[in-house]
Amino acid sequence: MRLAGVDDSGRGSVIGPLVIAGILLDEKDVQRLSNLGVKDSKRLSRKRREELYEAIRDLALDYHLVKLSPAEIDKVVRSGRKLHKLNRLEAQTMAKVIEFLHPDIAYVDASDVLAERYKHHIMEYLSFNVEIISEHKADVNYPVVSAASIIAKVERDQAISELKAKYGNMGCGYATDPKTLEFLEKWIKQFGSYPDFVRLSWKTVKRIRSKTEAIQTKITTK
Questions:
Q1: Does the predicted TM-score (pTM) go above 0.90?
Q2: Which residues have a Cβ under 8 Å from the Cβ of 171 and sit 6 or more positions away?
Q3: Is there a single domain that holds both residue 115 and residue 154?
Q4: Are 37 and 146 a contacting pair, CB within 8 Å?
Q5: Do the bridges between strand 62-68 and strand 105-109 make them parallel or antiparallel, or are there none, so unpaired?
Q6: Beta-strand pair 105-109/2-9
Q7: pLDDT tens-digit profile of 57-108?
Q8: Overall domain count for the chain
Q9: Are 9 and 172 in contact (CB under 8 A)?
Q10: CATH number, position 181
Q11: CATH code, 119
């Protein structure tokens, strides 16, 4: 039996890509994942994730990932209700990963509040019969999904590190990080518009731009 685990990283960030990763594993090797110490990526240090990243790739039959750019996300989000459209985009992308891996069973961490609905959205985009197990906290409950979450997180961290090396410290890319907010404020003040690695449709990004423009207009009209 060939099992796949699929998870994402960067869904709620304002900077950088949304990464969706999947791994393919022989059922008999699931215990080996647990023996490695694989768990939800959020419960591991960055160093430990990077160590496990290599071990997971060595153990897996195959793996696949897709990086969705801010522009791709903005295009979908702007076309309708944000969460509904983002869930659909993730379901479609997870289907692409599952198509590539072609497992007998695919375990996915559900992005929709209704896990069963998310399962059916994924199935709409699949061209072959596969059992989909869609659950919340699948990255905690299933080692194969935990492993996928590690792959996705390491790839996302690498993308942010590359941006930092080129453009300066932008924190982790989430609106909860003061360094990320500071980076966005400084950028919009200096350049007047955001770079292509920022999600323009996010409320935080819009708010910072509006606030900065209002201040600059006030200064100009004095």
A1: yes
A2: 177, 178, 179, 180, 181, 182, 183
A3: yes
A4: no
A5: unpaired
A6: parallel
A7: 999 999 999 999 999 999 988 776 666 789 999 999 999 999 999 999 999 9
A8: 2
A9: no
A10: 1.10.10.460
A11: 3.30.420.10
